[in-house]
Amino acid sequence: MELTFLGTGTSMGVPTAGGFGKEQIDGDPRNIRWRCSAWIRTEETSIVIDTGPEFRLQTIRAGLSEIDLVLITHEHMDHIAGLDDLRPFCYKQDQTIPVYGSSTCLDAIRRRFEYMFGPNRYPGATDIDLQEISETMTFRDLEITPLPAIHGKVTVLGYRVNDVSYITDVKKLPDATKESIRGSKIMVLDGLRWKPEHPTHMTIPEAVDIANELDIPQTYLCHMNSYVNHEESNKRLPDHVRLAYDQLTLTID
Asked: Rounded distance, CA 129 to CA 106, Å?
């Protein structure tokens, strides 16, 4: 199984529109971060987690040509704004693409993308089938477990896909979710910045504490802002915690 990080940045991306924080960005391309999204593929299956504002560009950059299923973490626009970019995949594959998320998230998608659904559906609109996920399910060769987490006042879903647990936009993990994560080979976790603390996101030190507590062999951080320098941060981190970066691909046996 392979995991490719399509994007690893904050809700505004890095660099941001208007140049906020641009003075922090050096020439390292790993410090350029599009909105968070991930691609997981096996010999049988190709799925993505989240479809943010750069999703079309992310798929082109990664060479992603087929999508069997989409997992959505939550309804914030930096995670769903690219849903319409699934349209060419529907055309090419000549099929409806299932999209899974919480009931709250799916309701928000129906409201914001109303032209895709119902009797007044626009001809040729993206063809997706919204499905609620609340317990472990099997899709082809993948076992997918939703991982409820707290993002400020919003409950979001991370996902364990076989031996990879992916949780972005999180401040706190409930005990039951921690137990679902245990035993993963790879964990992906929110790591917004070093300091100060944030009301809805983990800081990097908070994420390291979770990685240590759950004793995951390797943790990768995502959702970093422009004040997190890739090379300098990795020097400060323990060996079992690294920053992810756009287009990083991991192979999980």
From this structure: 10
The count of other CB atoms within 10 Å of the CB of residue 220 is 24
> Which three-class secondary structure state does DSSP give residue 88?
helix
- Is the preceding peptide bond at 15 cis, omega within 30 degrees of 0? yes
Are 79 and 52 in contact by the 8 Å Cβ rule? The answer is yes
pTM above 0.90, yes or no: yes
For 64, the token pair is 């992603």
Could you tell me where the DSSP H helices lie in the chain? 55-62, 77-80, 87-93, 103-112, 175-181, 204-214, 230-236
Distance between CA 33 and CA 58 in Å, rounded?
Answer: 11
pLDDT tens figures, 200-251:
999 999 999 999 999 999 999 999 999 999 999 999 999 999 999 999 999 9
Strand duo 37-41 + 46-49: pairing: antiparallel
CA atoms within 13 A on the CB side of 45: 18
Which residue in 250, 169, 160, 252 sits closest to 214, CA to CA? 160
Neighbouring residues of 16: CB distance < 8 A, sequence distance ≥ 6: 22, 226
pLDDT in tens, 115-137: 999 988 999 999 999 999 999 99
Residues 157-179: b if buried by 16+ CB within 10 A, e if exposed? bbbbbbebbbbbbbbebeeebee
Tokens of 121: 């559906």
